[in-house]
Amino acid sequence: MNTKIQNASLWILIVVVPLSFAGARAQTRHQKPAKACSSLAGMRIENTLISSAKEVPEGTALGSMGPIPIPPQPAHCVVEGEINKHTGPDGNEYGDKFELRLPDSWSGRFLFQGGGGLDGMINPAVGPARPGFKSALARGYAVVSTDGGHQGKNPGDAAFGADPQARIDY
To answer: Which of 10, 48, 70, 149 could form a disulfide with 62 if both were Cys (CB 3.0 to 4.6 A apart)?
Structure first.
C-alpha cells in the first residue's frame, strides 16, 4: 500500500468522521451531533472500514489505562475500525486498528493519543487520564488511539517487523 494513500486515509478519518458526526461548525463553543452515532458503522473511506459505532452514556465506566483508572466520561460515540487491512508475507493479519471517541458536545478540537512502546494494542481513546485532571474527551476533544498497525503480545513485541507494510504503518 502506498504510504501517501495510507496517510490520506488517516487524515480523511481524522477530518471527515468527526465532521460527518458533528456537522458544520456551530457558532457556539460546543456543538451537538448532526448524525446518529450508529449511522457511522459500516462506513468505508478509501481503505478504511468502520466496523462499529455506538453511543456511550455519560458516566459509563471505561476501565483503566494500566494502573490508572479512567474517571467517568461525558456522553460520546465510540467508533472502531481498521485502516489498510492486509496479510503479511509471514501469513499474519495486519492493519491499523483504531478507536475514535467523539464527544456529544464537541469543541472542534482533536487529539491523536500515542500508544507507547511498540504499540500493538489500543488504549481507550480518552486522552491523558490522570487523577485530578480532566481527560481530553471530557474537555470536548475528539480523541483517536491506534495499535500502530499490528497486534502484539506485550509492549515490546516486535514480531510485526517481519512485514514491510506493518513496519511502515508503525
So the answer is: 70
Cα–Cα distance for residue pair 19/140, rounded to 1 Å: 14
Q: How far apart are the first and last CA of the chain?
A: 13
CA distance 114 to 116: 6
The strands making up 93-103's β-sheet, listed across from edge to edge, are: 44-45, 48-56, 76-87, 93-103, 142-146, 110-113
Cα separation, 127 vs 139, whole angstroms: 10
Q: In a structure prediction context, what are the per-residue pLDDT tens digits for the chain, which is 170 residues long?
A: 444 444 445 545 555 555 555 544 444 455 555 568 988 888 888 889 999 999 999 998 888 877 888 888 999 999 999 998 989 888 888 888 999 999 999 999 999 987 776 777 788 899 976 667 889 999 999 999 988 777 777 767 777 778 888 788 77
